[in-house]
Automatic annotation (TrEMBL):
Leading EC class: isomerase
Catalyses which reaction(s): UDP-alpha-D-glucose = UDP-alpha-D-galactose
Organism annotation: Hymenobacter mucosus
GO biological process: galactose metabolic process
EC identifiers of the protein: 5.1.3.2
Quaternary assembly: Homodimer.
UniProt protein name: UDP-glucose 4-epimerase
Co-factor(s): NAD(+)
Length: 341
């Protein structure tokens, strides 16, 4: 049976690798593109061990139009693209805004140009809840106004969404796209063969938590405890990465079936918010490990609280998450232990 080919940019990354596994399990043939600037080739080994097959992978930068054209030509009929490839750390983007604009916006423009040349019409775009800025009310729905982004990273996601709407609205345009605005992905595949693999000091909470529990980091710093939240720490919507990966498969199916609008937007989260302190306590319950942590100053660019209203995703995509916070954190700890074995 010929499998429908879906290009996955950033397919060796944290979310991308899990999406590749779920695409293959759903009957698709994922094609990975990654420059490994923020991932490692060990992810390809993990994917192969999980699936029992080698997934085609091309080591290129999505800003390189000629290299991208070569992949499209070599792979033949691609039916769609999931675009993960982007820099993704809020804090880092505050110090490297130019790099974030060049990479995140530039790679999308290059990809859209090559997709048009090869007649590929379906795109699932990896967006983010950062597009909402600091919301006036919670939870946020897909109709919540986007406000000025709190970071260059968030601004790149807003720009990319605007670009996709404009391109799809052009009179002769054939592009169909789904913007998946996701919240905070955590956890790892149940096999502990793939998971979040930060290069250097982790920028995200959960790998810092697991590295602290493992003794790699001496202490976890919680960035601020004076926010306007019940315990003073930031509130986020933590969604298990496999649940998130499955949302991408559902989105691909919707695009290929030509359902919905030419540009459609969906929140992907659990619909619940948890504070950083609640996450620390849940990790300790799930693993039996005690965490050494301290309270530090707030981090520039951080939004006090945000979590999703997932009604639209449930009703129109037929998608909902199924993994609890404790189970997600337990899987992250299992992954950390596998890395050390």
């Amino acid at each position: 049976m010929d499998r429908t080919k879906i290009l996955v940019t950033g397919g060796a990354g944290y979310i991308g690798s899990h999406a590749v596994v779920e695409l293959y399990n759903a009957g698709y043939q994922p094609i990975i593109v990654d420059n490994f600037s923020n991932s490692q080739e060990s992810a390809l080994v993990g994917i192969e061990q999980i699936l029992g097959v080698k997934v085609p992978a091309h080591r290129i930068d999505c800003n390189d139009a000629e290299a991208l054209r070569a992949v499209f030509a070599e792979e033949g009929k691609l039916r769609g693209v999931i675009h993960f490839a982007a820099y993704k750390a809020v804090g880092e983007s505050m110090g490297k805004p130019l790099e974030y604009y060049q990479n995140n916006v530039g790679s999308l423009l290059t990809l859209l140009q090559v997709m048009r040349e090869f007649g590929v019409e379906a795109l699932v775009f990896s967006s983010s809840c950062t597009v909402y800025g600091v919301p006036d009310a919670l939870p946020v729905t897909e109709l919540t106004p986007t406000k000025k982004a709190n970071s260059p990273y968030g601004a790149t996601k807003q720009m990319c969404e605007d670009i996709l709407r404009d391109v799809a609205a052009a009179p002769e345009a054939s592009l169909r796209t789904i913007l998946l605005r996701y919240f905070n992905p955590i956890g790892a595949h149940e096999s502990a063969l793939i998971g979040e693999l930060p290069l250097g000091v982790p920028q995200n909470l959960i790998p810092y938590v697991t590295q602290t529990a493992a003794g790699i980091r001496e202490q976890l710093t919680i960035h601020g405890d004076t926010y306007d939240t019940p315990d003073g720490t930031n509130i986020r919507d933590y969604v298990h990465v496999v649940d998130l990966a499955k949302a991408h498969v559902v989105a691909v199916e919707r695009l290929l079936d030509a359902k919905g609008e030419k540009v459609d937007t969906f929140n992907v989260g659990t619909g619940r918010g948890n504070s950083v302190l609640e996450v620390v306590q849940a990790f300790e319950r799930a693993t039996g490990e005690k965490l050494n942590y301290k309270i530090g100053p707030p981090r520039p660019g951080d939004v006090p609280a945000i979590y999703a209203d997932v009604t639209k995703s449930v009703q129109e995509l037929g998608f909902s998450t199924s993994t609890s916070l404790e189970d997600s954190l337990a899987s992250a700890w299992k992954w950390q232990q596998a890395l050390m074995s």
